[in-house]
């Protein structure tokens, strides 16, 4: 029996069909370099593409990323103040009254592991649409 050609997913039905087909590979992983492995890879790509288009994930702004890092790492506003030079500066950044300098962004990236791309991205309020 010939299989359908793997193609881009355009509907919920297409998506569900692709999910049903790819599930069979979870119990019996195809051997790399085989036509089955190629089919698995193609299914995974079209499923990922459909999910990215259907349910996009918003990239957080710098303040949200800092707050998230603080929560995940058990850090406080005082910790942020020590890193950035003053508690007042930390308060202004968290309230949105002050933006990050490149030096601050670098410290947050290096010390707390926050992705630099998020820290240096212009805020949407500056007229630059989020990508």
What does this structure look like?
This protein has seven helices and no strands. The model is unreliable at 127-131 (pLDDT under 50). It has two domains: 12-54, no CATH class; 62-125, lambda repressor-like DNA-binding domains (434 Repressor (Amino-terminal Domain), Orthogonal Bundle), CATH 1.10.260. The chain is elongated. 62% of the residues lie in helices and 0% in strands.
Q: Average the pLDDT over all residues and give the rounded result.
A: 90
Q: In this structure, how is the largest beta sheet organized?
A: none
What is the distance, rounded to the nearest whole angstrom, between the alpha carbons of the first and last residues? 43 Å
- CATH fold field value of the largest domain: 434 Repressor (Amino-terminal Domain)
What's the number of domains? Answer: 2
Backbone structural class:
mainly alpha
| Broad CATH class of the largest domain | Mainly Alpha
Q: How many beta strands in the DSSP annotation?
A: 0
User: Cα-atom Rg, whole angstroms?
Assistant: 22 Å
In helices, the fraction of residues equals: 55-70%
- Unreliable segments of 5+ consecutive residues: 127-131
Strand content: under 5%
Count up the helices: 7
Q: Indicate the CATH architecture of the largest domain.
A: Orthogonal Bundle
Strand and helix order: HHHHHHH
What shape does the CA trace take?
elongated
Q: Report the CATH superfamily of the largest domain.
A: lambda repressor-like DNA-binding domains
